[in-house]
Amino acid sequence: MEHTEIHWQKSSHSSGGDEGQCIEIATEGDTVLLRESDTPGTVVTTTPEKLRAFLLGIKAGEFDHFTEAPPEG
User: Fold this and answer.
1) How far, in whole angstroms, is CA 34 from its chain's centroid?
2) Taking Cα atoms as reference points, which of 16, 13, 37 lies closest to residue 25?
3) What is the pLDDT of residues 2-46, one digit of tens each?
């Protein structure tokens, strides 16, 4: 099996440097790789189709309830 170097990409909105936390993305064959910049050893894999569905869900607000503060009580 031929070894190829993975080229990780950060968002242009990333603060840059090592102190900023951001998601990095790369591809390896037909697989999409995702990792957090502060824990580069942990990599999540998915397919382009599943990533697209997830991003469309984010844009549509399907996950907004996860960012809401819990009710006080």
Assistant:
1) 5
2) 37
3) 557 899 999 877 665 555 678 999 999 999 999 998 899 999 999
Output the six-digit token pair for 21.
């936390």
Residue 23 corresponds to which tokens in the numbers above?
A: 């998601």
Token pair in block for residue 51: 């990533």
Greater confidence (15 vs 48) lies with 48
Looking from the CA of 39 toward its CB, the CA atoms found within 13 Å total 6
Distance CA 51, CA 32 (A): 8
CA-based nearest residue to 51, from 24, 72, 31, 29: 31
| pLDDT interval class at 62 (50, 70, 90) | very high
